[in-house]
Amino acid sequence: MKRVIFFFLLFLLCLSQCVYFRMTHLSKDDLGWIQCYSHYPSPKFVSNTGEIATLSYQRVSIHNSTDRFYFNEGESYTYEANAGYRFDVNYADTTFWGSFSIKKFVDEDSLWTSFTLNYFESNEIQIFNYIPLKICDFEMDSVIYHNCMIADSTNACYSSLKENKIKNKIDKFVISKKYGLIYYRFENGEEFKRVFKHKPNRNGDEAE
Asked: What is the rounded distance in angstroms from the CA atom of residue 26 to the CA atom of residue 64?
């Protein structure tokens, strides 16, 4: 009898659109892309001209529920887990913002990403600016950083609305899974590199 009641209630919930039929979930390893805000909260950068910039995290969001039931009107039957953070870069008398997020779509085993820095952003507009996350190594000052996402002209651009409004355009930046933003470069050639408290070894890990 209890089983009959349970399935009857479940049927009513389905009719009222209160059940996710398809869901994705971010693993602990996936969420490693978001942990930099708590492990390294206040990074600094120095440019090749001696300028100093600081980064501050403004918002972190993690949507990684395993609960199939919801009670908000207007929702869909699909739950796609996602997480991300927003940050500000303070440079001289200028502040510009950036963001990085990951998402796992239904029927996709790999992660997708959306990112921006000073409006230089992932350029796939068909899926809300999310593109497949491509991981690679990045070498900076003879140190190799693993598990990095590189934004450049191959996967990012300025929208036509912002193209003529941004004075100091970014043409490349690098997000490390472990550290977050570690490098960015302006179109005029000025580049900013992350300053580490302890000098990383050749594998990109900070020395104890």
From this structure: 6
CA distance 16 to 131: 33
Element at 38 (helix H, strand E): helix 36-39
Closest to 120 measured CA to CA, from 165, 158, 87:
158
Cβ pair 130, 82 in contact under 8 A? no
The pLDDT tens digits of the residues spanning 104-132 come to 999 888 999 999 999 999 986 555 679 99
| Cβ(128)–Cβ(82) below 8 Å | no
Nearest Cα to Cα of residue 99 among 126, 46, 59: 59
Q: List the chain domain ranges.
A: 22-195
Can you give the pTM of this predicted structure? 0.85
The C-alpha atoms of residue 116 and residue 48 are separated, in whole angstroms, by 22
